[in-house]
Amino acid sequence: MANDKVEKNKELEWALIPPGEVSQVDGIVLEKNICNSWDKIWNFEAKPDDLLIASYPKAGTTWTQEIVDLIQNNGDIEKSKRAPIHLRQPFLEWVRTTNSGIDQANAMPSPRTLKTHLPVQLLPPSFWEKNCKIIYVARNVKDNMVSYYYFQKMNKGLPDPGSWDEYFETFLSGKVVWGSWFDHVKGWWKKKESHPILYLFYEDMMKDPKREIRKVMEFLGKNLKEEVLDKIVYNTSFDVMKRNPMTNYINDVKMNHRLSPFMRKGVTGDWKNHFTEAQNKQLNENYEKNMADTSLSFCMEL
Ligand SMILES: Nc1ncnc2c1ncn2[C@@H]1O[C@H](COP(=O)(O)O)[C@@H](OP(=O)(O)O)[C@H]1O
Ligand SMILES: CCc1ccc(OS(=O)(=O)O)cc1
């Protein structure tokens, strides 16, 4: 009974939080807090041994972050449980009244691992000047859209997505936070030609996690034994990460995990449970047009 009351109170408190406000930087929709701190973010001083994990939101960022942290710690599970993921690897552009990703990063000893959802053209120039290693993870547009819809529903840091039908149109227009999925994945893909970027795909990680983890290990210049790699595969599986309080954002008051958990389904092809036939046709046509100028290709089902 007492627990029921606590849960009900939490629910009421969450419902009273206003949804996130947005503004724009160079035509890209971003949280208002981020836009208001833009000079500080743009002028961030990267260091040559910084590692950056970049992605469009909901592409498998947290999964990649945990893989990287375990590789850096030679598969030591307890070390990777030292703190929640956003404290181990600061979220570069994240801004709250009392704290920010930039302040966290500046207070951190090197070598640092940072995370960003910024499109390539908005990445602070010091990352290019210092030639930092970057890992980018991308996910097929259909599953990415569904995952982002549920995230905007449960996360008051972002605007309310409205109905699924409304969100479908907003997402395709590119007027979502962090901008157009198409421009994001293509922009980072192109940058790969001139900069050390390991470009990963969520679907490849689903299909053969050990192969993809090995790629990350080699990119980081590490050499771990097979049994350590197996341990990392196991501890970064969806079921294990769902039970890990350090990868779940459980203490983020803006997130309502009862509405939709942070670790939601972790599958490829969930879009089939959400897209109408007409939406699928519209998206496929849109995809053909938008992806005509890139060699980048995605797998929509496994
Ligand atoms: N270990 C893992 N294996 C597979 N999917 C994972 C995963 N960890 C997180 N995810 C999925 O990645 C998405 C979140 O991505 P991000 O970390 O970029 O926010 C969610 O997708 P779903 O909403 O489709 O379940 C989440 O469930
Ligand atoms: C606004 C709070 C927020 C936004 C995006 C986040 O990242 S992720 O897409 O889940 O990796 C986390 C928190």
Automatic annotation (TrEMBL):
The family database entries (InterPro entries) matched by this protein are listed as: P-loop_NTPase (IPR027417), Sulfotransferase_dom (IPR000863)
Q: Does the keyword Electron transport apply?
A: no
Q: Where, per UniProt, does this protein localize?
A: Cytoplasm
Which reaction does this enzyme catalyse, per its entry?
A: 4-ethylphenol + 3'-phosphoadenylyl sulfate = 4-ethylphenyl sulfate + adenosine 3',5'-bisphosphate + H(+)
- State whether keyword Repressor applies: no
Grouped into one coarse class, the protein's main location is cytoplasm
Q: Biological process GO terms, please?
A: sulfation
Per the database record, which ranges form the Sulfotransferase domain? 48-294
In the UniProt record, the signal sequence range is: none
Provide this UniProt record's keywords sorted from A to Z: Cytoplasm, Transferase
Q: What class of enzyme is it?
A: transferase
What Gene Ontology molecular function terms does this protein carry? Answer: aryl sulfotransferase activity
Entries under Pfam families matching the protein: Sulfotransfer_1
Q: Which GO terms describe its cellular component?
A: cytoplasm
Q: What is its EC number?
A: 2.8.2.-
What is stated as this protein's family in its record? Answer: Belongs to the sulfotransferase 1 family.
Among PANTHER family, the record links this protein to: SULFOTRANSFERASE SULT
Q: What is this protein called?
A: Sulfotransferase
